[in-house]
Specification:
The protein is mostly beta strands and 129 residues long. Helices cover 0% and strands 43% of the residues. The strands form 3 sheets. It has a 6-stranded antiparallel β-sheet with strand order 1-2-3-10-5-8, with no helix packed on it. The protein has a 3-stranded antiparallel β-sheet with strand order 7-6-9, with no helix packed on it. It has a two-stranded antiparallel ribbon with strand order 4-11. A hairpin with an 8-residue loop joins strand 2 and strand 3. The protein is globular.
C-alpha cells in the first residue's frame, strides 16, 4: 500500500544527459508538482549546453567551481554559492577547475523533460549535390 506522505524513489542512479552533465534525481514525483530536486555533476573542462527551462531553478554549489552564465551575464561560482535562474532565461555553467563541479538543482514547479529547451544551434551537414 502506498503511504500518502511518501513520494517513492525510483532509485538514486546517476545518468548522463545531452546537456553534457550527469544528473541524479533526488526528488521528482507527480505527487509533488510544486518542486523537484536533483544533483548535477559536470566534469573538468566541460561547458553545459546553453538552455532554458519553463520553471524557475536554483543552483546550490556543493563542490568545485566554475563560471555561471545566466541571461548573458557571466560570474564565478564556488561551494556554498546559490544562483537563481528565472523561468525562460538562458543558462549554462562551465567547470574550469581540475575536479568535478557538483551542485543541487531545485526547480519550482517540478522539472519535466518537455520543459527543457536547447538554445544551441544544431550543425547541419552540407547537402550533397
Amino acid at each position: 500500500m502506498t503511504h500518502p506522505f511518501l513520494a517513492p524513489s525510483g532509485g538514486l542512479r546517476e545518468f548522463a544527459t545531452s546537456e553534457r552533465c550527469f544528473i541524479t534525481e533526488l526528488l521528482n514525483h507527480p505527487t509533488r508538482p510544486d518542486v523537484s530536486l536533483a544533483r548535477a555533476r559536470v566534469t573538468p573542462g566541460v561547458v553545459t549546453e546553453l538552455h532554458a527551462l519553463d520553471v524557475e531553478e536554483t543552483y546550490v554549489i556543493e563542490m568545485g567551481g566554475g563560471m555561471m552564465e545566466v541571461g548573458g551575464d557571466r560570474f564565478r561560482v564556488g561551494p556554498g554559492d546559490s544562483v537563481r535562474i528565472p523561468r525562460g532565461v538562458p543558462q549554462r555553467i562551465e567547470n574550469d577547475g581540475a575536479t568535478d563541479l557538483v551542485f543541487l538543482c531545485l526547480c519550482h514547479p517540478r522539472f519535466r523533460p518537455e520543459g527543457y529547451a536547447s538554445l544551441e544551434a544544431s550543425v547541419d551537414e552540407p547537402s550533397q549535390s
